[in-house]
Design goal:
heterodimer; A: mainly alpha; MetI-like fold; 11 helices; B: mainly alpha; 2 domains; flat
Chain lengths: ~290, ~280
């Protein structure tokens, strides 16, 4: 808790800088309008004008909060203008991608730990796969899944988000499954344990702290994947699509609101995953 | 069907070869096994696409992609310069440079460090790609807005990594510098920055992927009539799927080369670190 005061100070400083930036960047437009109308604007007028524009260059924090509030509570949650509705669409893709990413990551890690061949042939390609910018592949995934008769827009988004999230899980699980010490492995050998028994009773339990630690990275990556997946796919639902719509129709406030809704969603997901990690660590007796 | 049968036969053969190679424990196997794996996938892709006569609108064969790649080198080069060299690299250099300088600056004040690091950690996990439409609105359609998105994306991961790296020295090492009567600047240059290098390079490597993603995503929100993101979205619209794949090849090559380049520099700079030693 000793970090509370510094964090609050930094957040307050960010807000102040933000307001100054909003004033500074939006002032040009107001001055311009005034010059055309041949009016003088006083400082007070200038200030209120910069804070309340409909299409601000920099939306002031209270405008973003208003737009968020309106988006979340101002409409029925089934309405297309509700951020809850769009957030839920994105969340759905994120969670499917997260689950898929975990399944692929854990599955590959188990195969890699048990087979030298898989390790040598797959591991380098897994690393290379992460250097390929996924956004380049995203439209392809949409086209192919459409051609295969998958109408649901959820599927390509979930695949893209799994592509981003499987890697942290894979890397952590490989080191986790390899974390038992030689002495422990030898002990199980003296018991005459089979490979399956070694896996279930030693390798898997000792990999769990690694697994939960990787989830935090994976969930953040999943959300990025889901949002990126909405951009080139011509999606009309979801937070990413909301940003695209705001950008195309010149409605900056929609963009800002969607951006902050995404940030809040990310924060919430990370908090949940952190809580799960803490609970699991406590159960496992791993104290930090 | 014969082609599909051939594909399966080749796959089994390559699998057998890889198992033998992996068990042999030869040094060359480290490179041979993944290469065989990759080549096998390409060959099977080719044979299956030809064998099942998959429409080129869905999935073109690798040879078709290679052909398109070879015939449109000029366009691909223009896109590469626009997106990678102008957008991604400029933003990468500015963002990472600014983050390292900022980390050094806040490092002097423990109050700022304790305040900024939790915020930075949190922001690093947020979907910052979302600022792309705002940056396009601020900086226009050309590469400047792409560079700005990249700066925003790489800044916080880099800041967090550098700040962690600057803490990586032991008290005993700092005490040694004190007994030498080293000034703050000398300690920073001769001890703390070198000790932070593994962390800094970790951040730099994470940032390479982010930079390319940022530069391409920003192009979906508006771009001049060139750039990889622009070409991909328009080619999908025209169903010129082989062109999309050619761009994907460029993106993959650029991404791997970028990452590989940073890794090479890392090896040269942090040769003393345990993770780099003993692998000659």
């Amino acid at each position: 808790m000793r970090n509370t005061l510094p964090v609050l100070t930094v957040v307050a400083a960010i807000l102040v800088i933000w307001y100054l930036a909003a004033f500074w960047m939006n002032a040009a437009w107001v001055m311009d309008q005034a010059a055309r109308a041949d009016r003088e604007v006083g400082f007070a007028d200038l200030f209120t004008a910069t804070m309340t524009q409909d299409r601000p260059v920099v939306a002031a924090p209270h405008q973003v909060v208003t737009a968020l509030w309106d988006g979340v509570f101002g409409h029925e949650i089934t309405s297309k203008r509700s951020l809850v509705y769009h957030g839920f669409i994105t969340l759905e893709a994120t969670l499917w991608g997260f689950a898929l990413g975990i399944a692929v990551g854990v599955g590959l890690a188990v195969a890699i730990v048990h087979s030298r061949t898989v390790n040598m042939s797959v591991m380098p390609w897994a690393v290379i796969s992460q250097t390929v910018p996924i956004v380049a592949l995203a439209p392809m995934i949409v086209v192919v899944s459409n051609a295969l008769g998958v109408e649901d827009r959820l599927v390509p988004k979930a695949i893209i988000s799994a592509y981003l999230s499987f890697f942290p899980v894979l890397v952590s699980m490989v080191s986790g499954l390899r974390s038992p010490q030689h002495m422990q492995l030898d002990l199980l050998k003296t018991y005459g344990a089979t490979r399956a028994q070694v896996f279930w009773k030693l390798r898997l339990p000792s990999s769990l702290p690694y697994f939960f630690a990787s989830l935090k990275v994976a969930i953040a990556a999943s959300l990025i994947g889901a949002i990126v997946g909405e951009l080139p796919t011509g999606a009309i639902n979801g937070l990413g699509a909301r940003m695209l719509i705001g950008s195309q129709f010149g409605q900056p406030l929609i963009m800002w609101a969607a951006l902050f809704a995404a940030a809040i969603l990310a924060g919430g997901l990370i908090l949940i995953v952190t809580a799960i990690q803490r609970a699991a660590d406590r159960r496992m007796g791993v104290m930090r | 069907m014969t082609l599909v049968g051939l594909a399966i036969a080749i796959w089994l053969l390559a699998l057998y070869a890889n198992v033998r190679l992996a068990r042999s424990g030869m040094r060359e196997a480290r490179y041979a096994v993944p290469t065989i794996f990759g080549v096998t996938i390409l060959v099977m892709w080719e044979l299956v696409v030809r064998g099942l006569e998959v429409s080129p609108v869905i999935l073109p064969a690798p040879t078709a992609i290679a052909e398109r790649f070879a015939t449109s080198l000029g366009t691909l080069w223009i896109d590469f310069v626009q997106t990678v060299l102008k957008g991604a690299l400029t933003g990468y250099a500015m963002g990472c440079g600014a983050a390292v300088l900022a980390a050094i600056a806040i490092d002097r004040s423990s109050f700022l460090t304790r305040g900024l690091l939790p915020v930075g950690n949190f922001v690093a996990a947020l979907p910052i790609v979302g600022v792309a439409p705002i940056m396009v609105m601020w900086f226009g359609f050309d590469w400047q807005s792409k560079a700005a998105v990249v700066v925003a994306m790489v800044f916080f991961p880099m800041l967090v990594n550098t700040a962690a790296g600057l803490k990586a020295t032991d008290a005993i090492q700092r005490d040694l510098m004190r007994t030498y009567a080293a000034s703050y600047g000398q300690t920073l240059l001769k001890l703390r920055l070198p000790a932070a290098m593994p962390f800094i390079f970790n951040g730099l490597k994470i940032a390479t992927t982010l930079a390319l993603i940022g530069a391409i995503v920003a192009e979906f929100f508006g771009s001049p009539i060139m750039g990889m993101g622009f070409r991909i979205s328009t080619s999908v619209g025209r169903l010129a799927i082989d062109m999309v794949w050619a761009e994907i090849v460029v993106a993959a090559l650029a991404g791997s080369a970028f990452y590989g380049g940073v890794t090479v520099i890392e090896k040269a700079v942090t040769f003393w670190h345990p993770s780099q030693r003993g692998r000659t």
